[in-house]
User: Which sequence fits this backbone?
């Protein structure tokens, strides 16, 4: 690239290199006329300062793309920071691509592949079933992160066992004496996280000898963003209005649990005195809400680190464990309480 | 591109086109052996199904990049959805690029410009002063969104008047009878949002005839992410531990206000009975917190729409109003209350 150097800029302007540098860095110790002259020369000859030049080289470097399903989900924020740090450390460029709930992730990935420098892909938040078959079109390595895909053992996956962890939470609620546990669920046709956590809920009831009552399962309506405060609020209100008896709400996610708490407060109820509320994910916010939310903590940072390590190992064709399932931890907050025998 | 068609795939496999389609779409009505054969042929000849092919064309279309400062900020989530919708509607591709707090946005933008198809840039969350000078290196139109830049009238900007709106909030708190209003601030050297809102705080005190007390201003420590729950919590705790007298906390952002509430609760205090707490931004979460947070609502969606419209007008070289300042709205929550005369 025949690019002009800072020395040539200085020569053209009849000033020293340090003056050019001062002009670029907006240093106070330079007069306006000189600064203007330098900046005009820079523009005219298309000089790119060092700092940028260094980064521009990165444009030629290999790229890792992270496709994120639902950017509004605070669950992913920490993970993205880990990805960025590790990807940069390995001298790769980092591209974050947002995928809408209704969009086809693999189509987006194929599009990114057209960029020749793409060396690997992370599907953060999983992929929808309907696109699983299309994964075979991808020519670069990829890792599906935070959701166990149903694609098969050979698909690189990092996640917690969503069904098992969900069951753990409901078993805990049952051990607190709750028998009428409502579940704020995903859309009925959800075949990802929503389905797995619902299965765990059913399993725990079965194991606890409790009947599964379809009337206590509040499904997300079509077109409503599942993992939202608004949805948690709407489903809890619908539950209250149904007149169904319950002592506890288990929500699919912490965000929905917080929405549910607010619906209870607005109806003049207390948490946990009148109703216990539990969530899933272990968001930082769960600890800051009042009352703090009882939840399942996913080890997000560890999962993010494992995801990116797995991807690099695949790129370098090292032998890998393609299916990495992490343990989650039940974190007791103040939003749930043991039910006294009298109240049952 | 000499790409194989679905008809050719069908011919190679000795099956009908509909069978190939069933294989691709993972239809139950096809036997496994046939499906495997079709999928292998597809892979071998590098056939890309229609749906993807359609999207791949988009890879040749023009691109708008949104550079987002602090992806963890829920304030930007709604705005991104508007950007994506409008950019796609105008038949442009949408690239979301994450910029760390310490990174240089203009360097990142220059890097993106190397991609020839880039037609415009949105700097979401503003840009730091030190990079303002470098804006002149950019050759494509850009809009600075949500922060009034100090660059000058000719720089395309969409924002609220952060100083004025901050002043509005503090005037309201003073009108409630509060005289000792602590401020949870950004880093002391912040020259963006943090400086503007701090100025508004000082202006309101001055206008209300109250003294500015440096001991009531809690500055964010270096290296601590400003707009975080953790930071709000830490600053409020530091304030409590300082022993300084105050009746109200005004936080730079809603997220920090929520962190501050939790610090008060953990110290056995009530909100608003013992202390009033106010924020800024108008996050959805502010309404779901208990108590709901008194805040300044920025019209995020309208600002996002104006940002993208302004960018397209610049691209099409239409005459524009480069400096678009929106009105924000004070939203009273349950986290603040009028101070009785006796308590003052």
Assistant:
């Amino acid at each position: 690239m025949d690019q002009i150097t800072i020395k040539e800029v200085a020569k053209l302007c009849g000033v020293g290199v340090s003056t050019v540098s001062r002009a670029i860095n907006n240093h106070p110790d330079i007069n306006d006329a000189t600064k203007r002259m330098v900046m005009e020369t820079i523009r005219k000859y298309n000089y790119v300062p060092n700092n940028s030049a260094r980064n521009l080289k990165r444009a030629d470097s290999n790229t890792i793309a992270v496709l994120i399903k639902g950017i509004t989900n605070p669950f992913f924020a920490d993970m993205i920071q880990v990805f960025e740090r590790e990807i940069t450390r390995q001298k790769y460029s980092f591209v974050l691509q947002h995928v809408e709930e209704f969009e086809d992730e693999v189509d987006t990935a194929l599009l990114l592949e057209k960029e020749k420098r793409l060396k690997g892909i992370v599907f953060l938040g999983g992929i929808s079933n309907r696109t699983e078959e299309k994964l075979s079109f991808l020519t670069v390595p990829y890792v599906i992160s935070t959701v166990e895909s149903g694609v098969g053992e050979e698909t690189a996956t990092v996640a917690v066992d969503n069904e098992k962890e969900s069951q753990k939470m409901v078993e805990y609620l049952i051990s607190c004496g709750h028998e009428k546990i409502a579940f704020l669920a995903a859309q009925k046709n959800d075949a990802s996280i929503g389905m797995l956590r619902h299965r765990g809920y059913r399993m725990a009831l079965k194991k606890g000898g409790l009947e599964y009552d379809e009337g206590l399962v509040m499904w997300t309506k079509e077109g409503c963003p599942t993992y939202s405060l608004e949805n948690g609020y709407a489903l809890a209100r619908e539950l209250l209005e149904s007149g169904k008896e319950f002592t506890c709400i288990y929500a699919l996610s912490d965000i929905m649990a917080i929405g549910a708490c607010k619906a209870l407060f607005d109806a003049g109820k207390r948490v946990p005195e009148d109703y216990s509320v539990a969530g899933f994910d272990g968001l930082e916010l769960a600890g800051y809400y009042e009352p703090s939310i009882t939840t399942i903590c996913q080890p997000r940072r560890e999962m993010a680190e494992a995801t990116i390590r797995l991807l690099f190992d695949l790129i370098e064709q090292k032998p890998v464990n393609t299916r990495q399932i992490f343990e989650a931890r039940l974190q007791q907050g103040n939003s749930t309480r043991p039910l006294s025998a009298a109240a049952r």
Notes: Chain B has 13 helices and twelve strands. Chain B touches chain A through 56 residues (CB under 8 Å). Chain B has three domains: 6-57, 62-160+299-327, 162-297+330-343. The CA atoms of residues 224 and 231 of chain B lie 7 Å apart.
